[in-house]
Amino acid sequence: MSDIHIDPDRVPKHIAIIMDGNGRWAKKQGNIRLVGHKFGVGSVRKITEAAARIGARYLTLYAFSTENWNRPAAEVEGLMKLLSSTIESELSSLLKNNVRLCVVGDGRLPQTLKDKLQRAVEQTSSNTGLTLTLALSYSGRWEITEAARQIALEVQSGTLDPQNVDSQCLAAHMPMSFLPDPELLIRTSGEYRISNFMIWQTAYSEFYFTDTLWPDFDEEQLLLAIADYQKRERRFGQTSEQISSK
Ligand code: IPE
Ligand code: IPE
Ligand code: MG
């Protein structure tokens, strides 16, 4: 086990991760990109278990962006097949570990995959442990646009007064509104960008970037990220003095 010390009372409730670097990981070993995605599933399993064990309540994983549809057809197809087989093979361990599965995205997925996801979501819906949310065919701009559309519909039908459209109202109409904002956002693979992930909810998240490629990201790496997060002072616009006098 690792000797990285974290304060169990200050574990982020919600950890969001941009799982990046599968393709480069595979290429480094002379393999095709899909091999990296397959090994990436192993990291998903490990990190889900670790996050639950450490005491996080929500883990949100960026698994496929709306922009990822622009990848070569063979990779997209391979990823959809991998998602489908993973949902099947992992369902029993989600149930065993009391994990509630949620999925957020624009729904532009193959019907068979959608059906499998729907069943897994329903079967795990009463689990009370970690909430694992997969962002699938997801983007932050899609999500904000979706909230705007819903609000427009409610205003049009007369159930919402435009005067009441404020930041709380917008947040409540986001497809991810069932989740609290993440305290910690992790991105693997050495890229320093958000790539259209949770752009609304990460307004005050702490960002942690690591060069580690996703298939190599393990519990120790997660603990390092949390330890780094715990060293930070979250000021939310206030001064350091205000925060330390609380
Ligand atoms: C992340 O790994 C997984 C997905 C985006 C589906 P990548 O496939 O982006 O791997 P790199 O960034 O090309 O190495
Ligand atoms: C972001 O990774 C999307 C996911 C991790 C699912 P990408 O590899 O697609 O991001 P960019 O294109 O390098 O910004
Ligand atoms: Mg990438």
3D structure, described in words:
With 246 residues, this protein is of the alpha/beta class. Helix content is 43%, strand content 14%. It contains eight helices and six strands. A six-stranded parallel beta sheet has the order 3-4-2-1-5-6, sandwiched between helices. The longest helix has 24 residues, at 73-96. The protein starts with 13 loop residues before the first strand and ends with a helix. One 3-methylbut-3-enyl trihydrogen diphosphate (IPE) is lined by residues 18-20, 62-65, 68, 191, 193, 195. Residues 19-24, 64, 68, 79, 189, 214 line the site of one 3-methylbut-3-enyl trihydrogen diphosphate.
Strand order of the largest sheet: 3-4-2-1-5-6
Which ranges are low-confidence, i.e. pLDDT below 50, for 5 or more consecutive residues? Answer: none
Please give the radius of gyration in angstroms.
19 Å
The biggest beta sheet is recorded as: 6 strands, parallel
List cofactors, ions and other ligands: 3-methylbut-3-enyl trihydrogen diphosphate, magnesium ion
Mean pLDDT: 97
Shape: globular
Helix content: 40-55%
User: What order do the helices and strands follow?
Assistant: EHHEHEHEHHEEHH
Report the span from N to C terminus: 35 Å
Taken as a percent bin, the fraction of beta residues is: 5-15%
State the total count of DSSP E strands: 6
Structural class: alpha/beta
Number of helices: 8
